[in-house]
Amino acid sequence: MTEELQNNQNMNMPQSGKISKTLRAALQVSGGAIPFAGGVLSTIASAWSESEQSRANRFVEQWIRMLEDEIREKEQTIIEIIARLDLQDDKIAKRVESTEYQSLVRKTFREWSGAESIEKRLYIRNILANAASTNISSDDVIRLFIDWINKYSVLHFQIVGAIYNSKGISRGAIWAKIGKEKVRENSADADLYKLIFRELSTGGIIRQHRYTDNQGNFIKLTPRKSNRDDSILKSAFDEQDLYELTELGQQFIHYAMTDLPPRIGFNPGFNDGDAN
């Protein structure tokens, strides 16, 4: 088992050029060290029965397999990022090799809990690829985006994506847009939906739709008469109040949900035998 892990870590890298240098550095930053128990297990092994030792061995084997899968996933993500960058561009190459960018990579992979979902892995890949090639957002904002990936669920991001490019969309329209079936107002799904909107609102990602003047100042709205029955509380799937993304939400879409196309002809230097 450990031999397989060592083989994965020693896969052949390109031996020269900017891509080689950058890829090896990125993998070193993301991989980290695997904390084997070593002497600790030896010290307490004498207190275990044969059955307990067998269970411990199975646990360690499962743990190592989990770590191997996580390392492979991180390696795949790093390779996909590098495949999307023009490292012949001195500006991009300098950015990737900078301490600021390496700090973003460390933060991402240190806090990454593994394969929670394919979607989240792709969001991470897109954020780091766009952080290397564009400077729309500051590194402080990008760190916030990375925190959001860990903090929020895929359903949160589906809702954010549904709001994008709309000049105001209702909760009812969003529910239909993401392909959800109708549910009762007193259901757990309805409660979850309202909770997600509260979290996205307090998190600064979405807000209720506002009009602005020519200088970008928000215009105070005149309260309008509601057509709702006063005896019934506001629906989780309300069709009157409209939502939009904040500027932070707009930039998150650009970084996390915009996929740079892979560069044609990129060769990371892995052979078929190395990947098995």
UniProtKB/TrEMBL annotation:
Protein name: Uncharacterized protein
Organism, as annotated: Legionella massiliensis
